[in-house]
Each structure stands twice: as C-alpha cells, then as structure tokens.
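Run log // design_07
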C-alpha cells in the first residue's frame, strides 16, 4: 500500500481503497493466504467497476496489513474466490 501513486511503478490496476475485513483462505490450488475485502474509493487505472474488491496475499507476503491507501496489481480469477486483485510484485507460487 502506498500513500501516493508511485512514479516508478506501473500496474494494470491501480486503486485507492480502504481495507475493512480479512480472512485466512485457500485458493483453488490449495495455497494459503489472506483475503482482504476493501472498499474502492477511486479507480486510478484499470477495469475495476465495483465498490468492493478482494485482495489476495499469499502466505509470506511481508506487506500483509490493513488500512487505507493506493494498491497496484493484477486481476486474477480463482474458481473458489472469484475475481481477486493480486498486488504488484507479489509472486504467485
């Protein structure tokens, strides 16, 4: 999460959001992670057209926190979780 859009990083999806809920989950491949639910305050770039977004962080992500800020990432579809935003530079195993 960033306070401002970083000038040197780009991603297909860039939103300003407020995380208000989280849960421990497994994706369709059985990988463990945290699923955050966030209210989308503003879409800066990308195709997100909803008021809320799911953000998936796999185990071991050092940025697993909450709060409000700018999130950069990629949309990915998971058969169990639906459409999720995977933060930029967060390696999917």
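design_07 sequence
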């Amino acid at each position: 999460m960033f306070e401002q859009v970083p000038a040197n990083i780009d991603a297909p999806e860039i939103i300003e959001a407020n995380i208000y809920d989280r849960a421990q989950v497994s994706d369709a491949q059985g990988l463990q992670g945290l699923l955050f639910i966030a209210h989308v305050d503003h879409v800066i770039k990308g195709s997100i057209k909803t008021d809320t977004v799911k953000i998936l962080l796999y185990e071991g992500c050092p940025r697993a926190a909450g709060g409000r800020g700018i999130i950069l990432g990629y949309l990915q579809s998971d058969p169990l979780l639906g459409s999720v935003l995977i933060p930029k530079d967060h390696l999917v195993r």
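Strands lie at 13-26, 32-45, 52-58, 67-78, 82-87.
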